[in-house]
Amino acid sequence: MSKERAQRRAEREREAAIVAAARAAEAEKKERREARKRALTRWVPKSRRGPSGVIAERHRRQTRLLIVAVVVLNVLVWLASGDWAVRAFALLLSLLLVPVVQILMTKN
Fold first, then answer.
1. How far apart are alpha carbons 89 and 106 in whole angstroms?
2. What span, in angstroms and rounded, lies between the C-alpha atoms of 39 and 26?
3. Host H or E run for residue 82
4. Looking at the structure, do residues 1 and 21 belong to the same domain, yes or no?
5. The pTM is what?
6. Domain that holds residue 87
7. Sign of CA dihedral 97, 100, 101, 102
8. Which of 102, 33, 103 is nearest to 69 (CA)?
């Protein structure tokens, strides 16, 4: 009877060792995968959740409209004018004035 119990205990211990080894191999595999992922995504900036709400949405909408308006204006100047100096001046002027216009638009 004692030999049988010892055999069963030895069998259980052997099975537990196999399960533990498999678990350790899986954990090591997961750790290598995570290390690879960290190495690849280390340089990618983390996404941040910005403010949400009515005022933030209005600010985003105004900014989008301003950018679209500036792009459309520059495209129109580009198509209407054949002179590179006028095109460059319009682009430079829009780059200088967009921040000022945005501040004036969003300041309530």
1. 26
2. 20
3. none
4. yes
5. 0.53
6. 54-106
7. positive
8. 102
Asked whether residue 65 falls in the same domain as residue 94, the answer is yes
Long-range Cβ contact pairs of 93-99 (< 8 A, separation 24 or more): 94/70, 98/66, 98/67, 98/70
Half-sphere exposure of residue 107: CA atoms within 13 angstroms, side-chain side: 6
Q: Do 44 and 27 fall into the same domain? A: yes
- Same-domain pairing of 43 and 61: no
| Overall domain count for the chain | 2
Burial per residue of 74-93, b for 16 or more beta-carbon CB atoms within 10 angstroms, e otherwise: beebeeeeeeeeebeebeee
User: Each residue of 34-67: pLDDT tens digit?
Assistant: 999 888 888 888 877 778 888 888 888 999 999 9
d(CA 107, CA 96): 18
